[in-house]
Write a structure and sequence with these properties.
By secondary structure, this protein is of the alpha+beta class. The protein has eleven helices and four strands; from the N terminus they run αβαβαββαααααααα.
């Protein structure tokens, strides 16, 4: 008969060892959540809700991340990681499966570059959201908004022309980042109608959006 562990040890083994400052609407947070699902690490992380805007900070978050931005990940030793790219890199070293970020060589730089392009789409989309949602219409800076939308369109055009085969080959850091960027466009900027100019990207996104990790992290807002 196998020995049984005391209940206190079982609880200690199953209790989350990290805390993620979390808002399900954030595409940057969603990237981290998708990776946690894909690598089987969700039970290691407790979620701490963080509702914030540039003019309404989260004081608890500010104590751990002076930039006041999410995601931020508090580790078991109390140290805090911030910026989604840093958190993804850290978590990718914490599981036993194939890495979702290539460890070296040209593949690493290519996948990280595609992920950075997706982050740029998210940055522009979030800034548009803040401008439109937080400022009264008569104070909107239309030229600036158009410039952000053009960034998004140019980035999507590059993905449509040059990256579909690569995105299809692996659901890794690049594919996760692009998928979360497109999901955020659907959530906050359906008026951009990004699928019209990017049919191959739309087909790819339709497929990957059916993954359990994408379904589980879809914002319910």
């Amino acid at each position: 008969m196998l020995p049984t562990l005391p209940m206190t040890e079982i609880v200690a083994m199953s209790a989350p060892s990290m805390t993620l400052f979390h808002n399900p609407a954030s595409p940057f947070v969603r990237k981290v959540m998708v990776l946690l699902h894909e690598t089987g690490q969700m039970n290691r992380v407790a979620l701490q809700a963080s509702q914030l805007t540039p003019v309404s900070p989260d004081q608890a978050l500010n104590k751990d991340n002076p930039l006041g931005k999410i995601p931020a990940l508090r580790l078991a030793d109390g140290n805090v990681l911030y910026d989604s790219r840093v958190i993804l890199d850290y978590l990718d070293y914490q599981h036993v499966g194939n890495p979702l970020i290539p460890r070296d060589g040209s593949a690493r730089w290519r996948r990280l570059t595609l992920a950075s392009l997706a982050d740029g789409i998210m940055d522009a989309a979030v800034m548009i959201r803040y401008e439109v949602a937080l400022r009264v219409p008569e104070k909107h800076w239309d030229e600036w908004l158009d410039g952000q939308r053009d960034k998004i369109r140019r980035a999507l055009a590059l993905l449509e022309a040059d990256a579909i085969a690569e995105l299809t080959s692996h659901f890794d850091v690049a594919a996760i980042s692009v998928a979360c960027a497109l999901g955020y466009l659907d959530l906050r900027h359906p008026d951009l109608e990004w699928r019209k100019a990017n049919p191959k990207l739309a087909d790819w996104y339709f497929e990957v959006s059916q993954r359990p990790s994408m379904i589980a992290t879809m914002p319910k807002v």
